[in-house]
Design the sequence.
């Protein structure tokens, strides 16, 4: 399975970023086009979000970084979606920038 790693630095506190990430994965229209069955499991103690869909899976780790946080997204794509790897990575980077400036 192809993997995509996206790093993002945000000025939003880690706890707020976790909630924003969960909402973004479950409700964003562009991601819903890729996979309409996305569900998120949030672990506030570990500051991680596990994203499970029918087309892909992702693990999101949020680490406090001063007043903001550092976000690391690891996405596992099935071989069938490997031609769209660049588009998926571009979409995730753009959305993280939009929701977690």
Sequence:
């Amino acid at each position: 399975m192809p993997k995509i790693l996206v790093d993002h630095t945000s000025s939003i506190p880690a706890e707020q970023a976790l909630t924003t990430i969960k909402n973004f994965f479950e409700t964003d229209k562009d991601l819903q086009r890729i996979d309409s069955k996305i569900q998120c499991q949030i672990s506030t103690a570990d500051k991680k979000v596990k994203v499970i869909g029918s087309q892909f899976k992702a693990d999101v780790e949020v680490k406090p970084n001063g007043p903001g946080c550092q976000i690391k997204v690891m996405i596992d794509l099935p071989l069938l979606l490997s031609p769209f790897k660049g588009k998926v990575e571009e979409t995730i980077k753009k959305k993280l920038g939009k929701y977690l400036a």
User: Anything to note?
Assistant: Residues 85-99 form the longest helix (15 residues).
